[in-house]
Amino acid sequence: MSDASESAVAEGMTEAQTRELLSSILGATPLAIYAKDTDHRFVFSNRMHLQLLGLPPDQVLRHTDTDLFGDEAAPVEEVTRRVLDTGRPIAKEFELTLGGEPHTFLETIYPLQTAGELRGVAGIATDITARRRLEDALRSKNTELEEALDTLERTQDILIEQRKLAGLAELSTGVAHEVNTPLHVGIMGSTYILDVIRELEEASHSDTLTPATLAQLTEQLKESATLICGSLQRAAELIQSIKQVAADRQGQTLRRVQLGDWLERFVRTLEPLARRAGAEIRTEALHNPAVMLATGQLEQIITNLVINALDHAFTGDCADPCVTIQLDQVGEALQVRVDDNGVGISEEARTRIFEPFFTTRRGTGGTGLGLHIAWSLTTGIFEGELMLRDKEGPGSRFQLTLPVGTASLDWAPT
Questions:
Q1: Partners of 251 in the beta sheet?
Q2: 0.70 surpassed by pTM
C-alpha cells in the first residue's frame, strides 16, 4: 500500500476507500493529469486530460504521444526518455496541434515509482495558449511603444530645426509630462501581468490551481491588458497630435477654388462630429472669390477650431447649440470667423488658450494641442493671425486673418 493510502487508512479509511477517493480527486481536478509506462504508452488519463486532447479514452490509453501527434511529439518523447533515464522531473513547454489549431502546453513530467521500482512517468499539463497570445500581444504593444517614442524624438528634432514654435522649452516639458503618464501606466500594467503569470505558474506546478483562482487570475490579466491598451492608445494619440504640430511648411499643395463653394463642401465633413455633439454647423460666405489656397492646411485650422467648440462650448444648458463659420474678404486679406453660442471662455483661460498642452479638460481626454495647432498653422503656413475676439451674446469667437500673397494663399488669376 502507498504512503498516501496508509495515511488515509490511519484516519479510518480502508484501502479500497482510499483508492476510490484518490480516483475521485484525480478525476475532478481542473488540471490535466496522465501517466505513461516505460514504453511511453498512456496508462492513465484523467477527465481534464481527455477533454484537453478532445479524444475518447480508447484512443488515448495504450497509445504514445507519437501515435497521437506524429512528428510534433518528438520533443515530448525526448523529455519522457530523459525523465526515465535520470529519475528527475522536468518542466517544459511544448507546441502541439489540437483540432487544427496550434496550442502551447506547460507540462511537468516526473518519474513514477512503486515499491522502489520505476514504472513509468506521470505528468501534469496546462494549456497556456491564451497566456502566450497575451504575452505576444504585450510584446507587440511594447514594440509599438518603442516606435512611438522614436517618432516623438524625431518630431522634437524637427520642431527644433524648424524653429517654428514659440516657447520650445515649455513644449518639450509638456510632451514629456503628457506622454510619461500613459507610458508609466503601461509599464506598471506590463509588470503586473508578469506577476500574475508567475502566480499562475506556481499554482499550476503546486497543484493548488482551483477554478476560482484561475477565474480570478484570468480576470486580472484581462483588466491589466485593457489598461495597457488604453494607455498606449492615449500615448499614440498624443504623438499623432505632435506630428501635426510639426507639419512641414515646405511643399504645400495649392488648389484653385471658389472660396464659398469650397467652404460648403468642406463643412459637410464636419457635420457628423457636430451631430454627435448635438450641435449644428452653419456657414456664411460674404464673398465667393476665386483663390489659390492651401486647402488642406486651412481645413485643419478650421477643424481644430470647430472641434474645440464642440468639446468645450456646450457643456452647459444651450437651447440651440451652434457653430458658425464665416468667410469675408477684407482688403487684401481673407478673414475667417468661427463663432459658437456656448458657455464662453473664462478670463484665466483666455490668456493661455494657444499655449501647447494647456487644456481645461485634463481629466477627460483633452490634450491642449487643438488650438495650438491652429495657431501654429495660421502664423506659420499662412503668415497670418489667429485671435480670440469679443462678441455680442453668449459664446466665443475666433478670428483668422490670412494675408493674400503668401506661399499658401493668393487671389487666383481671372
A1: none
A2: no
